[in-house]
């Protein structure tokens, strides 16, 4: 008979769970409040969501302080992992969420925000993303992946338009396929090594000198396909433009930022140890994916007539651009990944929010879609402040100095050159130049075209609420003045990445 094993709470190190438990408790509290007293104003749920996200952010600051002193923290039977990558990615996840939630304080026509379930699902989704990045256990990554995905499918469908239901079904179908690929990949690695922990998998494969390289190839192919769907890497991107178009503009902006940083971190943990072990074919495959994703997405974005779909393809191209950091695999490249995504968060969420203020329930005769380029024609005359801010975001996405994303692109391309990927750096620079065309195209419409007037006499005018103006203003300030914080931000990021061994 086996002797009982006494496990103390102290040995479990439960503080590693606190950042994830806070949004879960918040979501449950919102559901309980709705059961006790239904029909309360959505402002209460917005405030509660912000409160728990703020507590989550404070918990992350505390974890960052402990990591700075003691290094990597393991907890809960060593399945939870708090290292620099986990902390940085959770800062982005929670920070972007704190920018997104106040957008719910808008016109009542966006009826999904009147449901308490929306805010509960949102907090469950955040907890799922946090579980994904704060572990190297493949099973817990899968749990976080499915928790966040199932909540996100429902949030998209709650927009309650024909295209929203179609988008949710497409996303669910692609997500289910990605989950299946991930499961098969994890199964292969477990069969090879007898472990589902990435550090142990790396140790066993290295000790065996990758003798089962064929099976490793099978596992990696499944994993690449899975994360190809999540990151919308070509050719696994086909769902993205339709899902972005069907979701509300602000949710599309959120989807282009938060789910992808979680997937980037998991991909970094899985693929970089293989690249560093000299698995050359993986490096070649990633190289091809990166180049094709950047280039093809840019070409598709060039021919779009709808601004929202253009930004969707633009987001795919940016994902390919950042995927290069995982290919390069140096500390500088990994630091550049986080710097780029933080700057991208400000700019892209601001861009999609600008689309949101112009949403129309009934399209005028002269518009083919809700966000056609014609809608923005002459905006500098009809809505000068909105037009100027939209142009500012486009200049940043194009990488024009001194705006935010220029510094992210500069540092990422620099890391490619330093890492010996000179040809890749040239391809990245050329793709940035190509992307500049379709961003500048929108600026031309805003500043140089005359407003399009339909038969009903309709001319575009923005109708933002105060909360939306604050969020867009904050994003604009971050986009303009990011250069003042680049050096301290980069030092902060690099110290966390370096101390995590990446």
Walkthrough of the structure:
There is one protein chain. This protein has helices spanning 9-12, 18-36, 42-70, 84-100, 116-133, 138-157, 162-193, 198-207, 213-230, 239-246, 249-255, 258-276, 280-302, 307-328, 331-356, 379-382, 384-397, 404-418, 422-448, 466-481, 486-499; strands at 73-75, 80-82. It is mostly helical. It has a domain at 320-358 and 367-502. A hairpin with a 4-residue loop joins β1 (73-75) and β2 (80-82). The protein is globular. The two termini are 44 Å apart.
Which helices and strands, and how do they pair?
Blueprint: H1 9-12, H2 18-36, H3 42-70, E1 73-75, E2 80-82, H4 84-100, H5 116-133, H6 138-157, H7 162-193, H8 198-207, H9 213-230, H10 239-246, H11 249-255, H12 258-276, H13 280-302, H14 307-328, H15 331-356, H16 379-382, H17 384-397, H18 404-418, H19 422-448, H20 466-481, H21 486-499
Antiparallel strand pairs: 1-2
Helix pairs in contact: 2-3, 2-5, 3-4, 3-5, 4-5, 4-12, 4-15, 4-21, 5-6, 5-12, 6-7, 7-8, 7-9, 7-10, 9-12, 10-14, 11-15, 12-14, 13-14, 13-19, 14-15, 14-19, 15-17, 15-18, 15-20, 15-21, 17-19, 17-20, 18-19
């Amino acid at each position: 008979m086996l002797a009982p094993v006494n496990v103390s709470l102290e040995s479990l190190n439960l503080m590693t769970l606190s950042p994830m438990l806070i949004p879960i408790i918040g979501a449950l509290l919102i559901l309980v409040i709705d059961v006790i007293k239904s029909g309360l104003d959505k402002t209460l749920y917005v405030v509660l969501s912000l409160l728990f996200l703020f507590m989550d952010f404070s918990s992350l600051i505390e974890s960052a302080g402990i990591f700075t002193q003691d290094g990597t923290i393991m907890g809960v039977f060593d399945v939870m992992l708090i290292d620099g990558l986990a902390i940085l990615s959770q800062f982005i996840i929670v920070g972007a969420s704190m920018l997104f939630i106040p957008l719910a304080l808008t016109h009542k026509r966006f009826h999904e925000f009147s449901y308490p379930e929306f805010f509960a699902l949102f907090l469950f989704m955040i907890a799922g993303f946090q579980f994904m990045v704060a572990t190297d256990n493949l099973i817990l990554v899968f749990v976080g992946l499915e928790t966040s995905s199932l909540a996100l499918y429902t949030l998209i469908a709650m927009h309650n338009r024909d295209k929203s239901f179609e988008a949710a079904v497409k996303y669910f179908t692609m997500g289910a396929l990605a989950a299946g690929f991930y499961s098969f990949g994890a199964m292969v690695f477990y069969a090879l090594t007898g472990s589902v922990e990435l550090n142990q998998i790396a140790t066993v494969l290295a000790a065996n000198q990758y003798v089962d390289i064929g099976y490793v190839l099978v596992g990696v192919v499944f994993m690449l396909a899975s994360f190809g769907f999540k990151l919308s890497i070509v050719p696994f991107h086909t769902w993205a433009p339709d899902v972005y178009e069907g979701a509300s503009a602000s949710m599309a902006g959120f989807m282009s930022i938060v789910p992808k940083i979680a997937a980037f971190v998991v991909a970094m943990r899985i693929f970089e140890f293989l690249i560093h072990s000299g698995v050359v074919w993986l490096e070649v495959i990633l190289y091809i994916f990166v180049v094709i994703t950047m280039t093809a997405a840019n070409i598709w974005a060039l021919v779009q007539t709808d601004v929202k779909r253009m930004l969707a393809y633009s987001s795919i191209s940016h994902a390919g651009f950042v995927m290069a950091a995982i290919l390069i695999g140096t500390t500088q490249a990994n630091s550049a990944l986080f710097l780029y995504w933080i700057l991208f968060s400000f700019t892209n969420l601001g861009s999609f929010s600008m689309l949101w203020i112009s949403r129309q329930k009934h399209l005028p005769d002269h518009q083919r879609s809700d966000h056609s380029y014609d809608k923005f024609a002459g905006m500098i005359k009809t809505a000068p402040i909105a037009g100027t801010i939209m142009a500012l975001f486009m200049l940043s996405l194009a990488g024009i100095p001194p705006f935010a994303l220029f510094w992210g692109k500069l540092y990422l391309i620099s890391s490619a050159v330093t890492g010996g990927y000179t040809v890749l750096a040239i391809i990245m620079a050329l793709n940035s130049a190509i992307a500049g065309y379709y961003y500048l195209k929108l600026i031309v419409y805003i500043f140089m075209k005359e407003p399009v007037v339909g038969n009903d006499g309709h001319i575009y005018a923005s109708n933002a609420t105060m909360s939306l103006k604050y969020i867009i203003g904050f994003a604009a300030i971050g986009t303009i003045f990011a250069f003042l914080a680049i050096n301290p931000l980069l030092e902060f990021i690099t110290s966390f990445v370096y101390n995590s061994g990446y």
